[in-house]
Write a structure and sequence with these properties.
Arc Repressor Mutant, subunit A; Tetracycline Repressor, domain 2; 2 domains
Amino acid sequence: MPKSYSEQEREYIDKRLREEAMNCMCSYGIRKTTVDELVRRVRIPKGTFYLFYESKEQLLFQVLMQFHENMEKQLLERVDSLAGRPLDVETVTDLLMDYFRRADEAPIIRLMNSGELEILARKLPGEELAAHFTEDARMVEAVIGKLFPSGTVCAGELAETFGGAFRAAFTAMIYSHEGGQEGTYASLRLLIRGLVLQLFE
């Protein structure tokens, strides 16, 4: 029989699992992070892990989403700080480039390569990935709504389209490091500026 944990104990164990999952991914990457290593670090029985998560992939995905949500929160705070200021293409491009740069400098992003992301995605239920993409579209809509409060420039399907475009730019940034490409940020800024230009149309 699995041990019964109090709510406080459950919160602590979950917090520690997420912390060590982040540490392991930054140190070893996704493939080499194991449940055995996680439970050793958190000092819990292996069976306890499965009271919290169905698989290693589910935990790692949740940690990545938590990182993603924290980055989005910071972006929205930056957007709020521009309230009342006149905006132009360069200002918005600089804002988004700063977001991409800060994300790119995080160890968790630097250590993720395309193969690992694909492996993680393949092992997750489709509804979890779909929920993430829907949330991405909502975030894009929220950011654009704050930047352009007078209209509905990015509502509905258009939000999904721009969300997908920004995701593609982010993915291109990650992949570019694998080939040691020079001028990554210059190319990325060109892509982002092109998207921003369309938002100003």
